[in-house]
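Look over this record before class:
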Amino acid sequence: MMSTGVVTAARVTHRCGGVDQIAAASPESQERAVTELLTVPEIEEAYVLSTCNRVEAYVVGADHAVGRAALEEFFAAVDDEAVVSTDHDESLRHLLRVAAGLESVLLGEDQIIGQVRTAYEDARDADGIGSMLEAAITKAIHVGERARTETAINEGVVSLGSAATRRAANEVDLEGATALVVGAGEMGQLAARSLAAAGIDELVVVNRTVSHADHLVADIGTETEIEATAAPLEALDTVGSRADVVVTATGSETPVVEPRHLGGTAGADADGIEQVVVDLGQPRDVAPAAAGLPSVRVFDLDDLESVTEETREQRSEAAREVEAMIDHEFDLLCEQYKRARADEAIAAMYESAERIKEREVETALSQLEGEEGEAHREVVEAMADSLVNQLLAPPTKSLREAAAEDDWSTIHTALQLFNPEFEADDRPIVPPSIATATTGEATNGDPPIGTAEDD
């Protein structure tokens, strides 16, 4: 039986909330968060996506009021102004955009599609995925894969964090290196992830608020095999000197990295490998005197900005292609839901006809003279099947056309006529926009829901 609810979603992301708000919203685990949402009466399905840049929750409920109430409780620890809530259509579109990388800090980054998949598996383990979210999430993953294989959305270097990694790689071999990131904000996160993907062996993230660094390294630790640890800013005295690469991005008004924190105080190491420091701070995070250390090379924002400009433009062009792709795939998803609504009525119609056919075949066979015989049965059943198919072909076509045209009264009537379990006083089968309009809610033409095979 397909779901008869609507999707409602809420989120706290890097676009609408700070690091503290995202941390406040972050659940202990995605699976446990889904389990918690499913305890709310009338919530039929649930899906939670939690990363260091976003916490998003999607629920399927009888109507949007039910979904909003559940999500308000879920995000109760977060300031209201940091939470964005969406109804059916907008929630589905947003999910497609997330998987395609259009909502990421780094436009088109690849990591998010793996995170969407992991959250999907966690929700399945918690029994949170039903017909509605199954179609939506698998569609989102499909869109994400298309965006990355058919466009240039994930090509080149577009952020200063990834540019810092490229700059460092030009100076030292990152394979097996130890990297230190100072700061766990947006730019620090990008730098940390970029370094982790470049083949380093160890990553240390230091931050004034250690819990923010903990959240970042936890994510990186589960996604890669590198050793990732968090430490307070005071640990610079010990961890700074042993790092091959240091990237700073704190937003501090004064330098936080002094010459005494860096390996250059004792000169170049035995292999003559320099320590590379990339300062992404504005104002500077690294004291100017550090550039005078014999085994330290310091790069600042002026050294990096030109690296990102070309690929930033390249990805912006690709993003327009992805937007058009999402429009098309969203329309297919809506058609998929509509067809599923019609298919339930069609299935009920055929089941009813099958019961009548079986009864009449048995009656006809019992009235035949002589022994029934297998030949008689085959002839009679073939005739009955032919009659059923011919009689039901026109209404089948009409019901699918009705669904495509949002004619839900026809679908509802068909269910009443052919499904003995469908009571006349059941809630009408209509698209969410009509179902919620009676309570004064607007959902911008939300599509009907149900299940169907992937397009």
